[in-house]
Structure formats: C-alpha cells, structure tokens
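Lab meeting prep.
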Amino acid sequence: MGIGKLNRREAILATGLVAASSAMSPAIAAEEEAELLFVQNSGGVKLSAGKLTLTGTSAKTLYFSDRPERIVGRVTTKEFVDHWATGDDSFKQDPPNAVLTADNGGDAVEVTLVLKNPTLAGSDLVYEVEVLDGPAEVSGSWASLFIDLIGAPLTPLSYAGVARRTGRRTARRIMWR
C-alpha cells in the first residue's frame, strides 16, 4: 500500500505509525492525535561543507511522542528517507530542525541544524545541512540525530513557539488500511 497524496504530517506519521497502528484498536487510531519526533543513531559522523554524513547508521529510525500519548516505535530508515518529499507539506517543502549530538575527536558536541535532501547508500545516510548553532565541522565515532517534526523555535515559550507547538499537535494519526 502506498501513502498516496498526504500532507507532510500525514506522510511522516503514516510512516512512523506502521508498527504502532497494528497494536491499537481502529477507534483509538482514528481519533487520537500525536506529535512524533525522530532519532537516528550512527557509528560514525562527519560534518563539513554543508554536508552531514552518518556512517554505520542504524537500519531503524526511532520515533516517540510527547505526552500524553507516549508512543514509541521504529520505522526503517529507508522508509523515513523515501517519504521525505511525500505530500504538499513535506520535509522537502519545509525542512526540519535537528540537533546532532556527536563525538568530535573525543569530545561530545551538539550542533543545531536544518536538514535537507537525505540520501541513503547502504548504511551511510547523508543530509545537506545548514548549521544554525555549534561547530561547522565535526568528525567522530558516534552520533545521534534528533529530528523535530516541523522545527523548533529558539524559545519554546515564545508566542511563535506556542503557535508552532499548537500547529504540530494538530497532526493526525493515520491508520493504514
């Protein structure tokens, strides 16, 4: 079954809820709303010249939701990448923010990024990136990438942050039939 023409939230939620929806009753899956965030882990990292390369990336991308749902699950990293540009409101149209936590020559660093145009070749995942905060170059032996559904404001309690969070919480859960 294909995702068809879904907006960005629906496409990512549909991708992320394949496993979760099979464990829920149809009534619950159709009525509840959830905000999903994503985590990708790798055994190596290189950030340089506007490109982030995660080597030895896990075959599964973890997703989880904010309270009150507390949903946790996995989707294949290939599915995550394949659905990047799906729908009229896709990550391609509105690239997400992310925080990279990584080894940088023996020191842990955090880098705030905007992610664009992912490609997956074997277990190597490559993003074009815009560095918003943190070092522009990183090289190390491990990394975790925390991806926001539609980005995050600089201050979560700002007016813009409240408006964005309210918008994200309207993301509907999709039950695959």
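Slide two material, second protein:
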Amino acid sequence: MIRQSISIILITLVLFGLIYPISIWGIGKIMPHSANGKPIILDGELRGFEHIAQNFSSQHYFWSRPSDVDYDASDTGGSNFGPTNEIFLSQVEERINYLLENHPEKSKADIPIDLVTASGSGLDPYISLDAAIFQANRVANARNLELSQVTELISEHNKGALFGLFGPKDIVHVLKLNLALDELTNKD
C-alpha cells in the first residue's frame, strides 16, 4: 500500500512537475507569436496585444472591461467576490457612477453588464456589441466624428460566434477598434 502511494506520487511528480511544463514551454517556443499574447505591431511600434486587454481611459477611445488585476498579464484573475459581497457591490456602483458621468445622455438601465464587471481573467480584450454602442456617442463627440461613422466602424469590428455556434455572439475587440479609430481620424 505504501509502495503504491509512493509510486503514484513519483509518477505524478514527473508527469506534472517535469513533462507537462517542459511540453508547454516547447509549444511556446514553436509558436512564439501566440505564446507572447499575439503582439500587434504597427509601423514598427508595439501597440498592444491581441489576447490581453489594455486600459483605455481617454474620452477618445472605447473603454475595455474593468480589470481586477489592473490589466497586468502577469497577475491574471478575477476578484472572486460573490454578487452580494459589499466590496463587489461598491466597485460596481462606482463604475456605474463613472459611466453615467461620462455618458450623461444614458441611464443606469442602459449600461451593459460587461462595462461594470471584470472578466474571470481580468484581461478580456473584448466587449459586447452593446457596450461598444453604449460608448459610441462619447467617442464620436470626442473625436469630432459623425455618430454614423463610429457605429459603422463598430459594426465592421463586430465578431460573431465561431460558425455561428461556438463562443459569444456580437463582441468587439477593443484594441483593434481603437486602432481603426486612430486610422480613421488620421485620414481626415
């Protein structure tokens, strides 16, 4: 009995302590672009990462989902607060108030849930289509663009579910949308 227990411990130690980490490291070396968060480089300059959310706070940009890890990819994770936790409720209320201050034409009922709650990783680079549309008027005003130009850009960056079945429907990659906004504004 003790011999079997020691054998299982040694086998799992080798399997999960050596073989698994080395194989994951090897896969990362084979596909370095994906393993490093898929960097987005424009004109020789690193603009961000495709798989990692960035913090946008300017009125000129669409804002990402809130992050409980301050958008730090080395420290991913959610808050682990339940929906009745006082700290969580206080954070959500602060986020709601901030959104209403910056979108005075909107009401509390208009705010999409993903603009006031963080994702499980704290690094979700996508927002819902509703969250992007919610912010469109603010961004259009800040950039002196027609609202129709901004909503058209949003619809161009709307990503549906894979094969119409897998994953969330109607999401927008925030960094790519903001880069497209910069490109649109620089053309004028």
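Talking points for slide two:
Residues 83 and 89 are 7 Å apart (CA to CA).
The first helix runs from residue 2 to 30.
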